[in-house]
Amino acid sequence: MLNEELSSLIHKKIEENGKVVIGISGISLSGKTTFANKLKEFYESNYDVSVISLDENEDIFKESFNDKNPCKFYYENAYDFYNLKRKIEECYKKSDIVIVEGLLLFKNTVDINFDIKVWLDCTFTSSIERSSKDKKELYGDYFMWLQRQHFSIDNPKGKVDIIIKNDKVLENDPEVFVDLLNNKESLNKMKWLYEPSAWEFREDGIFVKTDRITDFWQRTHYGFRNDNAHMLYIETEKDFIMTTKVKFNAIHQFDQCGLVVRVDEDNWLKTSIEYELSNPPKLGAVVTNLGYSDWSTEELDSEVNEAEFRISREGKDYKIEVNVLNRGWRQLRICHLHSEEKMVKCGIYCCSPIDNGYEVLFTDLKIEEKYF
Known about the structure:
Shape: elongated
Order of helices and strands: HEHEHHHEEHHHEEEEEEEEEEEEEEEEEE
Pfam families: DUF1349
Mean pLDDT: 95
Protein name: DUF1349 domain-containing protein
Organism: Clostridium weizhouense
InterPro entries: ConA-like_dom_sf, DUF1349, P-loop_NTPase
Structural class: alpha+beta
């Protein structure tokens, strides 16, 4: 059955112009060709309908692997959009409905005026599952990176007239693992790694008073290794968005609290605000791969006693965002955990590398599935 919203748009455009040009795009194996042919079948009893499939330039795939950046080379050189535009113009002369389907149709540099732009929504997980056994690595690596580049540069989903879900995964709402504000019982799913001596679930949030000489850090620069910060977590293999709002009363140097994602002692990341006594506090993120920590920081221009943190997971990639002084969300870091392990621990953490007594109240915490 044809999507009612799309049917209405097509009917409206034909009434206005007598003809319509429809662009259909999506990630690899999202079903573009099948959808375009079904659309043609639906309308061809009443209209003259043409379907144009965007084909790769000859040998482009092989040529791209000779470049130091194969996905970028493919993105820039895979298709002859000038020739595609000529094909559309020829079909437009004789057809009432022209349907064009293919990858990268909605690049910023593509000069084609589609009357209707359609995005077939599909997760990368399903795209990989739909591929043949011998090509799963190709679709899970080469084509995934190609299309993530397309998303970053062109924001194709933000340009379309209609998004049609063509993936059973997307038919269900994302799972909410933990929701402090709306489902306090969900906190019972969480476990402590290095449980603090003093903590409680309160009406206003999750209260923790830190123990002394606690921290997460591995080797780099300082030489020492600490792996005993207080972490309240769930475990999941799924992609997710994790958000927390926290209030804190820092006392000692290096007191800190925020969010953490952990594979094991040698592979993890955290984000927090760290207290620096008479110096400005440090907002930062630590990414630890293969037992070595890497700390990116920036000084805040004033003392703060609350903040919001957000971490989004997409496969092995993570985006860290912060909202300090209610200035709105901003990106702090994009990073990668190299471990092959899919299962991770994710949640809130706090610690006091010097002495105990740091009081922290997490007033909000939500961890929900993110389709990727």
